[in-house]
C-alpha cells in the first residue's frame, strides 16, 4: 500500500489495514510542508515530528511513538483483523508552522521480509543459495498465513450469510402465518356479521 494524503499540522489521519496474526508490518513515511511563498511542497519539513499509533482489533495499543519528519515504523500483529494506523503531525521545534498544510507520503508493507543484496554479494555461492532459500521459505510461510486468514474470513462470512438466510426464512414463515390468521379472522368476523344480520 503506497499513498499520500494532505493534513493540517497536529491533525490526525487514520487508515485501516487488514492484517493476519503474527505478521510483520513495516511503514515508511515522509512529511512535506507547504511553502506559501514558493507555492509548493518542500522536500523536507524540519522541526516536524510524526506521532504514530497502531491499535489492534481488540482496541489494544500496539505502537505509540513519536518519530521525525521522515522515518520507518514496524510492528508484529498478534491478532488477525483490522488494525488502525493513525498518524498525527507534531511540531517539535517551530511553533510558527502550526496550522500549515502537510503532505504525508506513506508506504505500508505487510508480511515482507527484506532481502539484503549486499549480504549476498559478500558471501560465496553456497551461502547465497542458502540465503535465497531462507528468504523464499519466509515468503511461503507468509503466503500460507495470508491464505489461512482469508479462509477464516470466508468461513465467517459464509456463516453470517447462512444465519441471515435462516432469519429471513423464519421471518417469511411468521409473516405468512400472521396473514393467514388475519384472513381466517376476517372471514369468521364477516360470517358472524352476516348471520347476525340474517343475510345468510
From TrEMBL:
It comes from the Eukaryota. Its main location: endoplasmic reticulum. Residues 12-110 form the GOLD domain. It is found in: Endoplasmic reticulum membrane; Membrane. The chain crosses the membrane at residues 168-187. Residues 119-146 form a coiled coil. Keywords: Coiled coil, Endoplasmic reticulum, Membrane, Signal, Transmembrane, Transmembrane helix. Belongs to the EMP24/GP25L family. This is TMD11 protein.
Amino acid at each position: 500500500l503506497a499513498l499520500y494524503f494532505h493534513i493540517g499540522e497536529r491533525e490526525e489521519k487514520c487508515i485501516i489495514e487488514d492484517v493476519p496474526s503474527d505478521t510483520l508490518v513495516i511503514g515508511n513515511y515522509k512529511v512535506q510542508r507547504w511553502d506559501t511563498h514558493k507555492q509548493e511542497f518542500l522536500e523536507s519539513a524540519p522541526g516536524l515530528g510524526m506521532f504514530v499509533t497502531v491499535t489492534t482489533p481488540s482496541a489494544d495499543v500496539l505502537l505509540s511513538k513519536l518519530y521525525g519528519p521522515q522515518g520507518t515504523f514496524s510492528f508484529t500483529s498478534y491478532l488477525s483483523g483490522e488494525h488502525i494506523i493513525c498518524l498525527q503531525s507534531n511540531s517539535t521545534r517551530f511553533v510558527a508552522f502550526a496550522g500549515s498544510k502537510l503532505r504525508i507520503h506513506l508506504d505500508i508493507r505487510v508480511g515482507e521480509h527484506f532481502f539484503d543484496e549486499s549480504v549476498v554479494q559478500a558471501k560465496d555461492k553456497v551461502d547465497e543459495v542458502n540465503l535465497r532459500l531462507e528468504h523464499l521459505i519466509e515468503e511461503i510461510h507468509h503466503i500460507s498465513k495470508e491464505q489461512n486468514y482469508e479462509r477464516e474470513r470466508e468461513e465467517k462470512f459464509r456463516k453470517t450469510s447462512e444465519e441471515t438466510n435462516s432469519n429471513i426464512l423464519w421471518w417469511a414463515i411468521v409473516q405468512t402465518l400472521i396473514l393467514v390468521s388475519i384472513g381466517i379472522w376476517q372471514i369468521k368476523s364477516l360470517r358472524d356479521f352476516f348471520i347476525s344480520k340474517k343475510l345468510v
